[in-house]
Amino acid sequence: GWGSQSSKVHIHHSTWLHFPGHNLRWILTFILLFVLVCEIAEGIVSDGVSESRHLHLYMPAGMAILAAITSVVYYHNIETSNFPKLLIALLFYWTLAFITKTIKFVKFCDNGVGFSQLRFCLTGLLVVLYGMLLAVEINVIRVRRYVFFKTPKEVKPPEDLQDLGVRFLQPFVNLLSKGTYWWMNTFIKTAHKKPIDLKTIGKLPIAMRALTNYIRLNEAFEAQKNKRSSSPQGSRSIWRALCCAFGRPLLLSSTFRILADLLGFAGPLCISGIVHNVGKGNNTIRPQTKILGVFFISSQEFLSNAYVLAVLLFFALLLQRTFLQASYYVAIETGINLRGAI
């Protein structure tokens, strides 16, 4: 319990996200894990064409994946339990990771490794990601005055979490639970044992109540009426008010849908590449670049491997379904709020 800043208010402790920059940290960690998987694959493919084994090409990346998974589990627990002083461990780790990757990147530059080699690009990406995660950690400590400050900033829990009657926790859980709807397992288990009623479901969050959305839409509508312009009032003002009040979540839903549709192209492209490489009957890469005693492959050589394309196809389909489901959820929730407001 060293340095615990836990609130005395009785709330859903397992869902309150205390630290700022929460979603950005999770997104950066997911990208970091994907880049590390690519680094492992690149190391295995490069090592496969060498006469001797070079474990240093992919073993550090494997350890980095374990460290990244451990860091996000560790971060989730200290955030929901509110142990800000334990952030110093993550601050120390991101600093070391950033320094070591920077040294590796500089060494590549000194030995003439450039953008034509995939390992150089992956190392540069890792430097950027570790630097951004370090910046997020510093920002949490700076904004909330944690660790090195004597008087931390007091933060009140959301009003919804103080009301034990509210059990719709989608807005308050971490990003992974939002994307997988993991928080709904309690409802599913309860409904499996016995029929659920309105009391079991609980009250709506404040942001989804009809009165809240009515006030939001009414303020936007009044702002449209008060604007001095020559445009006629009526249906056009209503549409503008709707866009002003609910346009941001609809734009987010459209963005998720566009990303899902773009990822839909990955399937045919990967399958075409797999069929092409299998049809050739020889999937062995023959890289021409050898620096520091090991082979360096290009992005084109990396993507000509059928196994790599199969893994990329899996991740593309997984991400596509995640974006598509998120688009549906945001659109349906916004539609409910909009109808309640009207």
TrEMBL record:
The chain crosses the membrane at residues 26-45, 57-76, 82-99, 120-141, 291-319. GO terms for cellular component: membrane. GO terms for molecular function: ATP binding; ATPase-coupled transmembrane transporter activity; sulfonylurea receptor activity. InterPro entries: ABC1_TM_sf (IPR036640), ABC_transporter_C-like (IPR050173), ABCC8/9 (IPR000388). Keywords: ATP-binding, Glycoprotein, Membrane, Nucleotide-binding, Repeat, Transmembrane, Transmembrane helix. One of its GO terms (biological process) is potassium ion transport. Belongs to the ABC transporter superfamily. ABCC family. Conjugate transporter (TC 3.A.1.208) subfamily. This is ATP-binding cassette sub-family C member 8. The lineage of its organism: Eukaryota, Metazoa, Chordata, Craniata, Vertebrata.
